Amino acid sequence: MISELSRKRKRSFTQKDQHETSYEVAPVYLPDRMKQFDERETNPNERLKNIVKSKGVDVLVNDSLALDGFFSEYTEEEVNAYDSEILAAIRTQDMEKLREFHANKRPLKCSNKFGESILHLACRRGFLNVATFLIKEANVTVRVCDDYGRTILHDAAWASEPNFDLIELIITECPDLLYMKDRRGHIPTSYARRSHWALWNSFLKERAHLVIPTLIPYERGEILSITLES
């Protein structure tokens, strides 16, 4: 008898509790979660395209290897200056040695026979101090590309960990490098790792004023139309 009454009371309490708590709504922060999800899932190529479109600008994607006069050519002296000594200075970030080379008028816009320069190397390794010295002190142009059509921005984006201070330095010097495609048809942001998409999207949003191209459209250019990759 007592056991049955207890069961009835328990059942009655449960029904009442369910009825009373059915009106309680827990706070859900869906907009923020959706925003975070969007930042992770949006390809930086798409974010870049939307930013430029919002500025009312038609952007042309150009084939790096098809542009005449835009990229600087290497002289025989600059190719000959690309040796183990200067590579060691870049890889060890030996600023004293690099300044010594510069003081002695040694060419620092130097590359191997494939057009891969020491500035490419510095950018691929994320060496902001080295790149800043080469660009700002040694006056090495950022308008260089290798025989595959890769610019220094391609290499900066390819880095295992993107250095956004370095990337900002490059696009401040020449935002047009964002819209140069290599032989694979890829612009620099195409090489952003998926795990870094949120970082790239945040950077592009915060530096939207730096991504507007200045390049006069070339005949071989095409309206910015990017195939998104998974």
Please provide a written account of the structure.
The protein has 230 residues and is mostly helical. The chain contains eleven helices and three strands. Helix 7 runs parallel beside helix 9 (152-158) and helix 9 (152-158) runs antiparallel to helix 10 (164-173). The termini are far apart.
Largest sheet: 3 strands, mixed
For this entry, what is the oligomeric state of its chains? single chain
Mean pLDDT: 83
Query: How much is the radius of gyration in Å?
Result: 27 Å
State the end-to-end CA separation.
Answer: 67 Å
Backbone structural class:
mainly alpha
Estimate nothing, just give the exact number of structural domains.
1
Number of strands: 3
Index terms:
single chain; 230 residues; mainly alpha; 3-stranded mixed sheet; 11 helices; 47% helix; 3% strand
